[in-house]
Structures are given as C-alpha cells and as structure tokens.
Amino acid sequence: MDLLMIVLLMAMTSVVVVLVIGLGGFAKGGAFNAKYGNKMMQLRLLFQFIAVLLIVLYVYLSGGIF
Predict the structure, then answer these.
(1) What are phi and psi of 2, to 5 degrees?
(2) Any idea where the domains of the chain sit in the sequence?
(3) What angle do the packed helices 30-61 and 3-28 form, to 10 degrees?
C-alpha cells in the first residue's frame, strides 16, 4: 500500500470517529453536547472535505477518471 492510500484511510477513519463521537454526544445530550456538539459536526465537515480532496488526488495520480 502506498503512502497516499494510508493517509486516505486515516482521513476516512477520522471522519467516522468524529461522527460517532458527535452522534453519541447528541444522543446523550447534556453538557458535552451543549459545549461540543456543534464543534464536532464542524470538525466532521472539515475531515470530510480533506478526505474528498485526498480521494480526488488519489484517483488523479493513479491515472483514473481524469
């Protein structure tokens, strides 16, 4: 496996981890959700953006669609 694929997998894993933490906090409610709920979803969006950019870069460099 090349380095870009490893970084891509780490980025996608980060999205899932932040999503699960955010959803868990939302389901539980309370102080954690009030303090970090919005920040967790903003962080998820940032990680998703990075993951999509890495996917596009990987496809481009591997001679895929483009």
Answers:
(1) -85, 170
(2) 4-63
(3) 160
At 65 the three-state DSSP class reads coil
pLDDT digits (tens, 9 = 90+) for 28-44: 888 988 898 899 999 99
CB 44 within 8 A of CB 22: yes
**What DSSP designation does 62 have?**
T
Two structure tokens written together for 42? 């903003």
Query: In angstroms, rounded to a whole number, what is the distance separating the alpha carbons of residues 19 and 33?
Result: 13
Burial class (CB in 10 A: 0-12, 13-18, 19+), 40: buried
pLDDT score at 1? 67
**Dist. CA 3–CA 9, nearest whole Å:** 10
**What's residue 15's pLDDT?**
95
DSSP run (H or E) holding 59 = helix 30-61
